[in-house]
Automatic annotation (TrEMBL):
<dbReference type="GO" id="GO:0016747">
    <property type="term" value="F:acyltransferase activity, transferring groups other than amino-acyl groups"/>
</dbReference>
<dbReference type="InterPro" id="IPR016181">
    <property type="entry name" value="Acyl_CoA_acyltransferase"/>
</dbReference>
<feature type="domain" description="N-acetyltransferase">
    <location>
        <begin position="8"/>
        <end position="164"/>
    </location>
</feature>
<keyword id="KW-0808">Transferase</keyword>
<dbReference type="InterPro" id="IPR000182">
    <property type="entry name" value="GNAT_dom"/>
</dbReference>
<protein>
    <submittedName>
        <fullName>Acetyltransferase</fullName>
    </submittedName>
</protein>
<dbReference type="Pfam" id="PF13302">
    <property type="entry name" value="Acetyltransf_3"/>
</dbReference>
């Protein structure tokens, strides 16, 4: 998939992107916003990339700005082809692009791909309740809160997580018609 928003393009993850992924993962300000496992070292990055590319239950993309700069990554993971659903994960790793709507455009592009091309019925996500910037992005993109839970963050401290879901009829997305 190569999909374009007005200012972003989603393209498949490539080996040369691993330097960005590792750098973003090791930034403490970004890391505190992440839940899940991401590579911290180049060797881990290569293994992570191999798993990501061979996993039928995952679609990984790099978010590029109009000028081709890699500014983040976005994915559909935990895909259930039977239930037609998956979990969205996003990270804008280049801080110069924060608070400018790039994340919202990337999320909307990925939702269009999930609903219109893959025929998904639901996309869900988990976000720390302290991450107000991300929550605003998700709400603008059509996600609604579904529940809360508590998990340990990368620093070992418990953090509250908001569960959110988007469906094809939220924000203008439609399920493809089947014959």
């Amino acid at each position: 998939m190569t999909d374009r928003g007005q200012r972003v393009r989603l393209r498949p993850l490539q080996p040369q992107d691993l330097d960005h992924i590792v750098r973003w993962t090791n930034d403490p300000e970004i890391r505190e916003l992440l839940e899940g496992e991401y590579p911290e070292e180049p060797d881990e990055g290569r293994l992570w990339y191999q798993r990501a590319c061979s996993d039928r239950r995952s679609r990984q993309f790099i978010i590029e700005a109009q000028d081709g700069t890699a500014i983040g990554d976005i994915a559909l993971g935990e895909i259930s082809w039977r239930a037609r659903e998956g979990e969205l994960r996003i990270r804008i790793g280049e801080k110069a692009y924060w608070d400018q709507g790039y994340g919202t455009e990337a999320v909307r592009a990925l939702l269009a791909y999930a609903f219109e091309e893959l025929g998904f019925r639901r996309v869900y996500l988990r976000v720390f309740t302290s991450n107000r910037r991300a929550i605003r992005c998700y709400v603008k993109s059509g996600f609604l809160p579904e529940g809360r839970l508590v998990r340990k963050a990368s620093d070992g401290m418990p953090k509250e997580i908001l569960l959110m879901t988007a469906r094809p009829d939220s924000r203008g997305h439609r399920l493809p018609q089947t014959s």
